[in-house]
Amino acid sequence: TVLVVDFGAQYAQLIARRVREARVYSEIVPSTMPVQEMLAKNPAAIILSGGPSSVYAEGAPRLDREIFESGVPVFGMCYGFQLMATTLGGTVDNTGAREYGRTPLHVSKSGSTLFEGTPDEQSVWMSHGDACSAAPEGFTVTASTDVVPVAAFENDEQKLYGVQHHPEVMHSTYGQQVLEHFLYRGAGLTPSWTTGNVIDEQVALIREQVGTKRAICGLSGGVDSAVAAALVQKAIGSQLTCVYVDHGLMRKDETEQVEKDFVAATGVQLKVVDAEERFLAALAGVSDPEEKRKIIGREFIRVFEQAQVEIIAEAAEGEDVAFLVQGTLYPDVVESGGGTGTANIKSHHNVGGLPEDLEFELVEPLRKLFKDEVRMVGQELGLPDEIVQRQPFPGPGLGIRIVGEVTKDRLDLLREADAIAREELTAAGLDRDIWQCPVVLLADVRSVGVQGDGRTYGHPIVLRPVSSEDAMTADWSRLPYDVLAKISTRITNEVADVNRVVLDVTSKPPGTIEWE
Ligand code: XMP
């Protein structure tokens, strides 16, 4: 394992992903973890991330010098680089030599482990206020910039390396190469970590955790729950029961993909609860977005818990239903401060005549994986592309893509329009270019149009294609006009009561991705 020490910016996750892209397993630890504890994990190498602090600021995160004397190869980036410099006797000061963004780096690579095979002049991503003016004793300076005399250094003998820039950022042209040079040449690691290893390891862990008991998994139609379920199914087979709540707010064919394709691919035992009528009844007359979300959330929990209770009741004597499978991913784990993954959750239900609380232990087989790795695991487990490559879709489904009251007719109409948009985007090969494309029905708006010989008075459909890295921010996708034209023509021709298609050209912020 390569440990990535997180100094409190968003960089650590990106570094961990890049290390894994180099086929070396990595994990993130907070910089507040005592060095003793880091070393006790027996890391093959350690990477120190960037961070927002100045090494001289009061209360700035530090590391015990021992980390550099333990013999474990260490690579410091940005803040990590400056910390390595000051801890080992180099000089870092606030020279006013700030650099932000793309910066030309001058490399003197003779004998350099990190930069070998890369150009003498390369573009890197910088983000720093302080600068290193003298490397620690025994270190060779391997790069500089126009304003920073020491922009990279290394001490091959002690296996210590540092760069002022951010090699993990895409804009550092040779960043991945520099990182791989550290891993393979500096630390002597071999690229052997694969999603196949992950599957074998998780299958063994799940078997050990669950034993002969039973587990339940809620399928949402999304990637994470599907892959988690498939992995647990591989491990414990018929001891797993999946529950799929059909709330009637899914897109066209999505329920069938879960009911048929997913079951066919995994052989999982699936309980489908058809709750469309219940959801529609609960949503009748409601058009406030927050209220709709609350109703959908509340009904979902009730239906799911009812299903759990039924599964428990159906289980044979001595079959303890003790586990709940969840598709928690690594970013959620890191952002919620780590944890061991053995938490219990209590599910308070309201079905008469049964115990007040259902208590489950969680099984979270994806809690060490990033999203793209989850997709690879899903692929390796033989799940269909329609599920594995699916774009994000909100839990409340089309319920929050109808601006206005949700009714069966409106849902059917939106399903048709959405299916056309998805079909055309796929046909144009754009699925990987866009993050997602909500299709929204403005049910309370009508506009005048003309079709055939007659006047129409129909609803607009909004297309909301966005590009994004993580859904926190987004930009509207510049889709080719001919693709937009095709979608527009087909929707107005094929979907009754829709006579206008409009394009949302708002970034996030200020607009959210969804309309409600
Ligand atoms: P917004 O609209 O907040 O959406 O920009 C950000 C991302 O989250 C998705 N989304 C949801 N996902 N349950 C979910 O599982 C929800 O209630 C929900 N609301 C929004 C949205 O599709 C986008 O990817």
Automatic annotation (TrEMBL):
ATP binds at S220, G221, G222, V223, D224, S225, A226. Transmembrane segments: none annotated. The active site is at C78 (nucleophile), H166, E168. Residues 193-390 form the GMPS ATP-PPase domain. It catalyses: XMP + L-glutamine + ATP + H2O = GMP + L-glutamate + AMP + diphosphate + 2 H(+). Pathway: Purine metabolism; GMP biosynthesis; GMP from XMP (L-Gln route): step 1/1. Pfam families: GATase, GMP_synt_C, NAD_synthase. Keywords: ATP-binding, Glutamine amidotransferase, GMP biosynthesis, Ligase, Nucleotide-binding, Purine biosynthesis. Its EC number is 6.3.5.2. It comes from the Bacteria. It is an enzyme of class 6 (ligase). Catalyzes the synthesis of GMP from XMP. This is GMP synthase [glutamine-hydrolyzing]. It comes from Streptomyces albiflavescens. The gene is guaA.
